[in-house]
Write a structure and sequence with these properties.
Layout lengths: L10 E3 L6 E7 L4 H18 L9 E7 L8 H14 L4 H10 L6 H4 L4 H16 L4 H8 L12 H13 L7 E4 L2 E2 L9 H11 L3
Parallel strand pairs: 2-3
Antiparallel strand pairs: 1-3, 2-4, 4-5
Helix pairs in contact: 2-3, 2-5, 2-6, 3-5, 5-6
Length: 205
């Protein structure tokens, strides 16, 4: 499905010109999303690489899925979008690092700290991935500026991702679309065999 050019780094596997598309809606603070993200990295990234079985045929788009019943969800997704801006090639490594440490951003651990403290923790994680030279640029994007309710430099990107989910009636993560249609059979429990079987049946080019 469509993806605004500034968010091209959300294509985490395959070529942007691949005719088939897997849109995978994930929330950084959802355990099932974390499981699926690790499977994407282990299975789909090599399968959809240029040298892979489905190279040039399938692309995988990470769709940020903010789940507002988790108070920190907005904050962690802002961090991901900030990395898209300052270090686009490092988005997927950062996303994986955040998924692996997602427990630090669950409801109870973040209930006793402020949003600024959450952003500070995220900045440290980002620096460990993107390097110290870009850390200040990352922090600057997340700084609240302008009017008292005006958001930050990635608010418009966050709004785009939320509007995209809402207009397509995506309510929870993980949800997967194959060529624009919800593929309810896909599960976070899937491994290499299930994904290979699915792609073998679906890829038509």
């Amino acid at each position: 499905m469509a993806l605004q050019p500034s968010l091209r780094p959300l294509i985490v596997a395959g070529s942007a010109n691949a005719p088939h598309t897997l849109d995978i809606f994930l929330d950084y603070v959802c355990p099932f999303s974390a499981k699926m993200a690790l499977t994407i990295d282990k299975v789909l990234v090599p399968l959809c690489a240029d040298s892979g079985k489905y190279g040039g045929k399938v692309k995988v788009i990470f769709r940020p899925q903010v789940q507002p019943w988790h108070a920190s969800s907005t904050l962690v997704h802002e961090a991901g979008l900030a990395v898209v801006r300052v270090a686009p090639q490092q988005f997927w490594p950062f996303a994986l690092a955040l998924f692996k440490q997602q427990g630090e951003y669950f409801d109870i651990p973040t209930s006793t700290i402020t949003p600024l403290e959450v952003r500070s923790k995220l900045a440290k994680l980002a620096e460990s991935v993107i390097g110290s030279s870009l850390a200040n640029d990352f922090k600057d994007l997340l700084e609240l500026k302008g009017s008292p309710n005006g958001g930050n430099a990635v608010t418009d990107d966050l709004k785009y991702t939320i509007k995209f989910s809402r207009q397509n009636s995506i309510h929870v993560s993980p949800t997967v679309l194959w060529d624009g249609l919800v593929a309810n059979e896909i599960s976070s429990s899937w491994g290499e065999k299930e994904w290979n079987d699915f792609l073998a049946a679906k890829v038509a080019v």
